[in-house]
Amino acid sequence: MDTSAAMVDWSLAASLGARIAGPGPTISAAEASAAVEELRAGADRSTGLVREFTGLVAADKTAPILVVDRAGWVQANAEGFATIIEPLVNKLTERKGAPSGLTRTIGSRVAGAEVGFLLGFLGSKVLGQFDPFFDPDGRLLLVAPNIVHVERELSADPADFRLWVCLHEETHRVQFTAVPWMREHLFSEVKALGDTVEPSRLTEEAITKAVEALRSGGNLAEVMATPEQREILDRVTGMMSLLEGHADVVMDGVGPSVIPSVASIRAKFNRRRKGVGTLDKILRRLLGLEAKMAQYRDGAKFVRAIVDKAGMEQFNAVWAEPANLPSKAEIADPDSWVARVLA
Description:
This protein is mostly helical. The protein has helices spanning 10-21, 29-54, 70-96, 101-123, 144-153, 158-178, 182-195, 204-215, 220-223, 227-258, 262-272, 278-286, 289-310, 312-315, 328-332, 334-342, and strands at residues 65-68, 128-131, 139-143. It has one domain (4-342).
């Protein structure tokens, strides 16, 4: 946090993000307390349900489960962002020297405001998240105000919806704790991406081209990537599509036995994922969130195709080693993954 603070005012990012996200829906103290307790119970209950459905056995809950408000989620992700960009900041500082005086103050506050806007927008949307960057084993965050907001918006049964969300997020906790190499592998990919950044490429011409590409429907990660970065991004996209799709398959696969209204919830939730208004859709595109939605959809198709063809036990070969993770191309062509890994 100390080094990255030279580039980003994280306190400003967290405070501004919390203000932009807002407090969430109006709810009585008694209702809020009940929701928190139900989410905690749902997360605990989900552990066994995920294990029975997937065959993955997670370590004891060394990764804590936290039920947070929007400001808590924003603060946690400001801390996570600081951890992620620390190696990149160190690299830039070594090459260009650390900013000082007024330049440092103004620059860090501008960057803090930009990050704060992003966190504020996401902080009003995210239902839950496994944060793998929290030492030593990560942590599971459930954003109570957003869960309550969405269950009301969908007219969903609160108990069903809360357990459904818990199943998805607990699946992520299991993925990172039952698969011992997953966390470090993600770290290594993030580091590899940072190692490829060349400050000299961030020219005015490059940024102008990026803006033009965005107007044509691209996203920041895609349009500013070098060939080497695209290769890394393709690997990360394959990995994240697997993780998100697997969690979606689990939450729906477990669902019917314990969540009577799961089919209705899924149908309504898929419609909601497309964005609720013009501004929301524009922001989703610019921030690359449309690509994130594709990860859920395409990853779930990949997982279902292999489980239907080979069974869950065979599918679980995907967790054996990093080489067994699907590429971005294999996510779209499950048979190619089967031929490579299961043949």
